[in-house]
Amino acid sequence: MSVSEQLTVQQTPEKVLEPVLEAEHLRKDFPLRTVRLFGPPRAVHAVEDASLALYPGRATAVVGESGSGKTTVARMLARLYDPTSGVIRFHGQPVNLKARGQALRAYRRHVQLIFQDPFASLNPIHSVRYHLSLPLRVHGHAHNRQEETEQILALLRRVSLTPAEQFIEKYPYQLSGGQRQRIAIARALAVRPEVLLADEPVSMLDVSIRLDILNLLLRLKDEEQLALLYITHDIASARYFAEETLVMYAGQMVEGGPSEEVTQRPKHPYTQLLLSAAPDPDRMMAGQKLQLPARGEIPSLINPPSGCRFHPRCPHAMEVCRQRFPRRTQLGNGHWVHCFLYGDGDGEPVVSARLKTASSTGAAESTATDGAGLGTSSLTPPSSGASPSSQS
What we know:
This protein has helices spanning 3-10, 70-77, 102-110, 128-138, 145-158, 177-189, 207-224, 235-241, 259-264, 269-277, 281-285, 319-323, 350-360, 364-371, 388-391, and strands at residues 21-31, 43-54, 59-63, 85-90, 93-94, 111-114, 195-199, 227-232, 244-249, 252-258, 329-332, 335-337. The protein is α/β, with parallel strands linked by helices and 392 residues long.
């Protein structure tokens, strides 16, 4: 069952949403431009088998640490990168990934990307008028100077830059970071898109104005019924901002589902690690100090670990985790996970099957304590609210 079919089933009969943009089994390798006299050419395996669906009036968050492949997924959806393999569908129709020229321009008319750095995404030698008039002219929304000015002023008001007449002739160096990002958002809205891809839109901004930008995007999503992809490394903001959250690690999507479900009942050890590292006011009020285990860094994507790429850092790693990546296991309420602790696509935990086999041969006790070099807790799926540190 595809991602869109899974989510469509969850909708109420009165309101069945169809995805605007859908990606299935996207994969992206970046060849290394180095000369090797011996051996095959090498590549950075940035994204492996990523699937998602974006719906009108809904926000989907992709969460993960730096280097997990989040931005690469967004750039493939924006057609800035061509996928190595996989399918992108727009309104159910496959997108021609080899198309250029007018076909590519028509696609980008519907799918726009907001870049992470507002200081680099605007040309310092051009005014706000130039940045906003260019997409209006290219896509045929403004036919003369008067129409252009009226639409630019309307765009500035939509992103809460008022009085708009004071901003239209300014240059990027005359604006604050938050104002620059609002200009970048207005530029994306100028082509009247159906899909907005926000690549960490607040990570370069002061903490004091991040919430304003997120609230602006939420308002625009609701007013325009935009399908919104929110890229972030902050899982707490994903819960606040998005209806659905997907967790990525080293190019692999490891868990996903409704944001409340994923953040309140995390299953994958990496999701639990992300949540344990996020500030928790309740935990701070209780005076609890969380000790995170030192489990290394994200692996090299040139020579990534086999199987589940999190297994070198996982406190529950088993031999099967090193052999192959687990299939998706549905946990109910739209919540799914790729982890052998909860099954291999069949809902039957691999650890349970292992213990049953050991019990049938009379070796359950020795298997649980000695067989894998792990304690009994390593063979028990973590509780819904526990972090990996408490299970190690």
